[in-house]
Amino acid sequence: MKLQMRSRLSAMMFLEYFIWGAWYVTLGTWLSGSLHFTGRQIALAAGTTSVGAILAPFFVGLIADRLFATQKVLAFLHMLGGVLLFAATVQSSFTMFYALVLLYCLCFMPTLALTNSLAFRQMQDPKEEFGAIRVLGSGGWIVAGLLIGTLKLEATSMPMRLAALSSLIMGIYCLTLPSTPPLGSSSDKFSVSSIFPKEALALLKERSMMIFVIASFFICIPLQFYYAFTNLFLNQVGVQNAAGKMTGGQMSELLCMVLIPWFFRRLGVKYMLVAGMAAWVARYLMFAYGGVPDGMWMLWGGILLHGICYDFFFVTGQIYIDQKADAGLRAAAQGLITFITYGLGMFVGSWLSGFVVEHYALAQAQGTVTYDWRSIWLFSAIVSGLVLVFFLIAFSEKERKRIGSTADLPLGSDAVPQ
After folding, report:
1. 361: part of which helix (H) or strand (E)?
2. Under DSSP, is residue 364 helix (H, G, I), strand (E, B) or coil?
3. Closest residue by Cα to residue 26 from 197, 206, 153, 182
4. What residue spans define the domains of the chain?
């Protein structure tokens, strides 16, 4: 790939994740403070991304794959999304705010898959080239957090307005990207099976895969506690520049990504996944018992564990699926797991986290509701621990047949990610 094309795609990834990182991390802090929304309302607002993740595969399959060029769909979605996100910042009622953010997420979440798709279409060797380009996405998220934290904008509507402006810029930029026409035909009949083929669904018939999917679904429920409420928690316990400090999670994610092959060869699939879930338990316990100033090291530990939490479970899970599915089913299988986890799992998590946080609400202080954060994080740790125990007991790597193929799959301590 030429340097010019690499730079253009890298800039696309940077803007894509800068937008998401700008508004999503600090959403709860602003809604709780300035707008006085309840814990349940904050969780529902954060959960709009999961609704978008549920519907995104159908949108991409119906519109982007068969009707319009990818760069034009991206431009339209980001421009419309920018308008919707800005409109949400001037609302004071939860109903209107929620409706606008939900519409925005229905626009934004499909763009995650579309940016990947556009990038892959321009590459000669995606396995070698994609990682170096996608890492700029993490860079965009980190820069957004550092900028908002440094400027002390967390408790204001400015992060959402910054994301709205960036979305408009991204929309214009997408029009300059290489032409990427749809691969499918507009005359092709659309059906659910065209997105999730029955062969991909057949993956769930194998016991080990079903156990993995069940664990993935349930572990995404406490994950929503982290995404929706960590910034609010850190601000309420007195952490300065919480948004900037939270970017340490993305930095550790980059480091863990590099170390995954080394750990994979020594631990294998099962114990990589176990390590990831165990890190979730440790993170929530650190949040429960950490504080400012004496327990700040525990808060830092909980943030920095994000790399192990995410990479060891989700990235390892993606590798596991890639190994289990036949080559022609891998994309559909990955889409199915994303639908179950980031869609259904986090949707349930948004509802449950709202009820739990609301249950542990304390008296208002200067117009802002405070919470019994120790109980909230202990609840998250217990749920994560139960999923960990279930997976540790039930999951086995003994079934080695690749779905859709008769080849044996070399899983275990000698497995190397592709």
Report:
1. strand 361-365
2. strand
3. 153
4. 1-182, 196-418
CA distance 388 to 219: 8
Three-class SS state of 371 = strand
- CATH tag, 1-182: 1.20.1250.20
Q: Read out DSSP for 54-102?
A: HHHHHHIIIIITTTS-HHHHHHHHHHHHHHHHHHHTT--SHHHHHHHHH
334 token code pair: 């990955």
148 vs 405: CA distance, rounded Å? 49
How far apart are alpha carbons 368 and 240 in whole angstroms? 18
Q: Residue ranges of the alpha helices (H) in 175-293?
A: 192-195, 198-201, 207-236, 242-289
Radius of gyration from C-alpha coordinates of the chain: 21
- Which CATH superfamily includes the segment(s) 196-418? MFS general substrate transporter like domains (1.20.1250.20)
Residue among 154, 152, 129 nearest 21 (CA): 154
Phi and psi, residue 361, nearest 5°: -70, 140
Please, what is the end-to-end C-alpha distance for the chain in angstroms? Answer: 20
In whole angstroms, give the CA distance from residue 314 to residue 331.
15
C-beta of residue 119 within 8 angstroms of C-beta of residue 13: yes
Question: Helix, strand, or coil here: 320?
Answer: helix
For residue 377, give the amino acid letter: W
403 vs 366: CA distance, rounded Å: 58
State whether residue 203 is helix, strand or coil.
Answer: helix
Has this prediction a pTM greater than 0.70? yes
Mean pLDDT per 10-residue section of the chain, whose length is 418 residues: 89 96 94 91 94 80 69 94 97 96 93 85 79 88 95 94 97 93 62 65 83 92 93 93 94 87 86 94 96 93 93 85 73 78 91 94 76 96 96 78 41 33
Rounded to 5 degrees, φ, ψ at 360 are -100, 25
